[in-house]
Every structure is written in structure tokens, then in C-alpha cells.
Amino acid sequence: MKNLNFKNAVPYLAAIVIFILIAIFYFSPLLEGKKMLQSDIVNHQGASKEIVDYRNQTGEEALWTNSMFGGMPAYQISVKYSSNIIGFFDNIFKLWLPHPANLVFLYFLGFFFLLLVLKVDPWLAIAGAIGFALSSYFFIILEAGHNSKAHAIGYIAPVLAGIILTFRKKYIWGGIITALFLSLELQANHPQITYYMVLIALIIGIFELAESIRKKYFSSFLLSVGIISVAVVFALLTNISSLWATYEYGKFTIRGKSELTSNLENKTSGLDKDYATQWSYGIGETMTLLIPDFYGGSSSVKISENSKIVEALKANNIPESTIRQFTSQPSSFIYWGSQPFTSGPVYVGAIIFFLFVLGLMIVKGPLKWGLLVATILSIVLSWGHNFMAVTDFFLNYFPMYNKFRAVSMTLVIAEVTIPLLAILAVKEIFDNLKDQKRLFKALKIAFIIVGGIALIFAMVPGMFLDFIGPHDDIMKQYQFPDWLVQSVHDERLSLVRKDAIRALVFVFITAGLIWALLFSKLKKQYVPFILMALILADMVIVNKRYVNNDSFTSKSKVANPYEPTPADEQILLDKSQNYRVLNLTVSTYNDARTSYFHKSIGGYHGAKLRRYQELIDNQIDNNNMQVLNMLNTKYIIFSDKDQRQVVQQNPDALGNAWFVKAYKIVDNPDEEIKALTNFTPKDTVIIDKRWEKALSSYSPGRDSLDVIKLEDYKPNHLTYSYQSKNNGLAVFSEIYYPMGWNVTVDGKSAFHFRVNYVLRGMVLPAGAHKVEFRFHPDAYFIGEKISLISSILLLALLILFAGIEIRKAIRKNS
After folding, report:
1. Is the pTM of this model over 0.85?
2. Which of 451, 525, 637, 679 has the fewest CB atoms within 10 Å distance of its CB?
3. Closest by alpha carbon to 40, among 409, 561, 555, 543?
């Protein structure tokens, strides 16, 4: 070991320290024992309460919950896939740091590793990692509680590193790194982010293919693709239980194809178009990549005391107390983009954006073209309903694209590709300082383009923008006088001007830095440190507008975000095992609070069962009480004239199960859901003709003494007892889901089918018997066994080749 030079390790150790310090000090309330209050995590606590309670009580996974939307699989809510032992590496890469500093550290570390694979100087790679990690959206999603999204973003860069390493003929380690980090990427469980990562990899691969054909190393390319494919298989098998369950479940959710034939022009084989494109970035809004508050920033920002709005309020003699009240509350009217609302813009940084444009002119090779195409595609797709020519094509023809909502999220691709090419531009300058003429010419052009754009909007923003937004009707609702509306427009203009000036300043300083390097006014080794400081100054100030110390609160409030209301306490006095609650005092179908205390008709989830959503749209929203009765809606919470919550018990709720007198056969799903409009579920059941054969042993009728009741309730195991004089047709007030629910009668396998569009039905034999429903999906139980085997094999390969490399290093330095 005598030849080991520990000085070589200094930049790598420094990188770890720098990343930790930035992450911790940005979220300095962590040092005070506080936690970030994340709205989506609060919703998650409500949505997952039944699942978590069951896990804590039994040590098992429920895999199903009845606390939301009548009942649904738990796969995308809360399931632990403990067989994937590769997940242990996740904590290592996050250094067991407190949340959310751990995810920001992962941002840093992953991108740093990618730049090292691309042979970027370690000190410059630190600057690049800072530029990537501090992209505004990556912090905004943390504040919102989109942890799985942030987690998946953190692994994009190292997966790409493994793929690129494989294309660079480092076959073994490229394959292992790809398999390892792709396993962790998939475990993060955000398919939409993984999909965007695959798009980047495919585009890079296409340009790599073209280069291999041009330079005649196609066989090497095929070998690389083969190894990457093996790595992908390992990663898929390691996560097979979650992937299998998600794929299986997805076909039955709003992300799967509807069987209804209405409104076909808005439908795809996945999400409806208007739902998928609801969050679409405006075409002009793309300028936020360079000028953050180009469209007003956040739609929940507090008005500054130095704003044009406050100036107007004072000029019109509005009392100070009214002004203070006006400025103390978040305002939704400063943002004037096309999205329904936003927590902040996608800002990659003026410095990074300028270096990206410079990179387009000086970086060579297929990777540059891949990054450019990926960036353009990302931006165009983010426009969504603002550019339907492209959006329609992708929704209709591009595999799986229509499974995802919020198309503005495609800008995550640009947030990877822009900083990557930006740092490769600086690397190109470092490597070719003697090519001064070419580099200086490119520098001038980049400065004219980017600096010119910033200068125009700093001087005459009103020449191109009218500052009138699609949601400005809110000001009419608040009865803003004309002078106040004008002050809002003036404030929007002021925000653009201020941010354009700051962008121009950072572009000018960065251009000056590169000029000084080119003309030997500054030594190369100082540039990374200056870049680190500049990028931090640029990004942290902007990010603090949207995510700051106000985002934190006490641990106790985060741990216990819900307190029962008097209405909740009244309902909870009912110790019946299983009934549902309709809460009309909240946004029923975007509410997790009710699910925390009760089994809710509503809920909060982006992948509810499609048939249940169609039941909401076609029947529940039309106040069909018979449908609420069949869903065993025992309690309804509403507001009285004084806005107090009042509980009303529904005496017509049909209970957990009942026998009917008759059935009605319908030809298709359209007729089935329409038939629910006028029927009496206590006596009649609506059945699709595909289940008609299941009724062969049943003759219509019901004895007055026939009875069926729920004896024992668990979310994944329901036990009923019944007494029936003849074969009876029973309806169970439980949501039908065909993949995993098994039913037995006295321990013998039986058959159940879908009735009343969303519920379960059975023909039961005469006599006294016990019926049991168990949720035992193969996707989870078989998948977990496969996952364990695959993860053990992957871990063994990693240990084996790591051992070989260590032995080589020891021999070399002995």
C-alpha cells in the first residue's frame, strides 16, 4: 500500500462534506429538531392509516385498504417489499441523513458520480452537482411532499452513468452499476420519473447507435446493449413484486382504458386527455428556465411590502391594518401562467442555462446531440394542451405515455440534460484552452443570445408580455377595483424585470469568468470554486422564495397532523366493524383526513379504480342516494347554516351484505352504469351479461328469514355467516377487484363476480354457511420470492467483482 496517494482522495471526500453541509444548512431547522410539513405526506398519513395500523398490529402487509374510495389495493399507498435486499444500499447512499436533507444529498451524489464517469475534473463535478441538485423544482417537490418523485430523480444520473460506462466499453462495471442503480430507481416507486429517465437513455442510445455505425464499432454497441439489457432484467426482477402489482392494478385504474363509450374524443387507452394535460406548462412559461418569476412564480406567494400592489393600496388611502391583512396571506393572483396552480417555477439557473447554450456550440460527439434532442422534447411535451399536435401523438401512440398526468413534469428531463451539457461545456474549455479562438467566438455568441434575452426583458418586458392570465377571474370574484387589477399587472411586470436583471448579472459574471480563463487572467484550478459560489448564490436565493424555514414545524405536529372533530368523535362512538362515511364539508375526492378516522366514500389518490371514478361522475355526484345506500354509507357529514359540521345517520344504508329478490341483466358497461340511475339495490341487482352463467343455480326470490352478516373484519380478510332457505343471490358492499380476491364457502373455493358496476356478488348455497374473502395476490406473494432470489444474485455479483477490483488495487500498490 506504500504507493497509495491519499491526496487523490481529497476532492472526493471534500465533495461528501460539501454536499452534506449544503443540504443540512439549507434545511437548518433540522438542527433544531424540526421537520418539514409536507402536504402530500400529511395526505399520505391519512390515506395509509388503516394499512399502517394493520402492519403495526400484525407484522403483515394488508395490501388492501377500505379507508378510501370504498376500497382499493394498497400498492401505491403503503406496501413494504422486504424481499428486495438491494434496498439496503439506499440508506448508504443517503448517509442516513434526516429527511429531506437525505434526498438532496442523493441529488448531489448521483450527479457527481455521473460527471466522474464522463471524466469531468472532480472539483468541477462538485460545481456541476450543485447546479443540478439546486434546480428549483427539485426543492419545490420536497416541500409538497412528493418524496417518491424526489427519490426517483436522485437515481436518474447514476443509472445514466452506468449506461454510458457500458457504451464506453467498461462492460462489467457498467452493467453492474446500471443494474444496481436501476434497481434503486425502480424501488423509489415513481414510474413517471423512471419513464422520463428511460426516454433520456433511449435518445442517448439512438445517437450512440448512429455513431457506432458511422465509426464502424456496431458489434461493440450490440454487446453494450446486450449487457444493459441483462442489467435491466436484474433490476426488473429485483423489483418484480411492486412492478407486477402496479402493472396489474394499473389496468383497472383511471390510468387504464375505460369500457364506457361516452366522450370518446377525450379518452385514450390511459388517462383522459383533459386530466393528463391539466398541468401543462405555458409556451411562454418556458422562459422560467432562465428567469424564474417570468410568470409570477408561485400561486401561493405572500405579497411583498415593497410591491407595486402595496404602493397602489397606499396611494388609494387603504388603511394600514387592511394592507397588513392583505400582505399576510398567500395570494393566488400573482402567478399568471396556464397551470391551475403551482408551488413555483422550473428554474435551472441563469449560469447553468448560459453554459448549456455555450455547450451546444463547443461540445462535440453524440452525447451532445442526445442531450439537445432530449431537452427539446422535454420542453415541447411540457406544453401539453398548449401544443396538442405533439401531445396528441404521444398520448395516442407512444407506449405508456398516457398513463401519466401533469405533463409539465417532463421538464425533469431538461433539468437533467441542461446542467449535464453545461458542465461538459466547461470540461471542453478545460481540455482545449489552446483552442482559444473557437472557444471565444462561441462564448461571444452564447453571451449575445442568453444575455440579449435577459436584457430585452429587463428593459422592455411589456413589449412581449401583456401580464393577463387565464385565471384572472379570481380578481373579479374578490371585486378588485380597476386600479388594484392594474397594480397586479404592474407587479407581474416588475417581477419579470427584476429577475431578468439578476439573470443578466449572473450571465455577465459567468461569461467574464470564462473569458478570464481563456485569456490566462485566471488559473484553471480556481474556476470550479468560483462556479460553486456563483451557482449557490444564484440558486439558493431563488429556491428560498418557495422552500424556506417556514416550511418546517415541530415533530409532534408532523407525527400527528389530524385531530378528530366533534363530528368524527360522534361517528367513532359507533363500534360496528365496517361502514362508510361521506364527508361533504371537504373536497370529498381530494381529502385524506376523513380516511384517517373512517372508511370514506372519498379519498386522496391519483390512481383510484376507474369504475369507482365513473360511479362518482355518473351517480354519486348526481346525488343518487340508492348508490350511497348500496355502498353502506351509514353517516354523512355536512355543514349547517353556521358552517358547523353536522352528522346525519343514513337509516337506508344496506349494511355489509344482503340477499336480493331479483336481478337485471344488461348488455354492456354503458347500460350497467345507466341502470343504477333508477333501481332499488335492496331488492334488485344489476349484472353484466358476461356473468349470466354464474346465475344458473339461482332462481329469483328471497325468503323473509334469509340473513347474512359480517362476523369479522380485516382489510384483507372478511368473514361472513349466513342463513338461506334456498340458493340465494348475495350482494357484498365491497369493491370488486378481480386480481387477488379469493372467496371460500365453508373453506371450499367458490366464485364471485361483479355486480352494480363496482360491487361483489355471489350465488350462495342454501343452508347455514361461512363465507370468507381473502386478498392474496400472486403479484405480491410470488413476486416477493422472485425478488429475493434476484437481489441475492445481484448482491453476489457486486461483491464478487468489487472483491476482484480490490485485490487488483492491493497488488498494484504493494
Report:
1. yes
2. 525
3. 561
